[in-house]
Design a protein that fits this description.
Elements (H helix, E strand, L loop, with lengths): L12 H10 L1 E5 L4 E3 L7 E7 L2 E6 L5 E7 L4 E2 L1 H6 L6 E4 L3 E7 H10 L3 H23 L3 H16 L10 H8 L3 H13 L3 E4 L2 E4 L2 H8 L1
Antiparallel strand pairs: 1-8, 2-7, 3-6, 3-8, 4-5, 4-7, 9-10
Length: 215
Amino acid sequence: MNFPQSLRFLLPRDVWQALLTSGAVRSYRTGEVLMRQGDPGSHVFILAAGRVKIARVDSEGNELLLAVRGVGDIVGELAVLGGGLRSATVTALVPCVTYVLSAASFLRIVREKRVEEILFRYLIARHRESDDMRAELAGLPSLQRVARALLRFAAVAGSERPDLDLSQEELAAAAGLSRASVAAALAILRQHGMIATGRRRLVIKDLASLRTAFG
């Protein structure tokens, strides 16, 4: 499984530094909301520490977990670039440190540094990642769906023993499964020593084996 690089590794170092310098540092506690679905796109957030989840609520009130983003990623850019409203809610999964830039500052730096094409490629890669995930999961049995979702989130965590801080409900939303199906799949992965679970805690104990079996 291949995952898009974070924006930090795609932009030239001077551009990345210009973005950070123009931002105001703000910290968020676990569970705190950075932005809400339907809000105006007035700012972008650069993740300097921590991880966030991006989720959308549909017309029936169901939450769909779209992605998890980590250090070096940027969130909120779609509404800023499109001049519209936020399409999803972003919530801190762990304590986070961000650089918050106004829409005007972000757009000015992108234009002045002439990195529109890089930003465009980043957005396309992220969009393709979401599309690929939905297409990939659609034809898989429950166990493989859950394992593939865990591998995607582990890639963001950037550790060989990642603590994903995800509930079963959130994992079910990401895999497109019922909570009962996710619980059954997690039980199998626990039996094989690949994961450990607790209240709002899911640790991948053997990432190498998970990759070998389901990657």
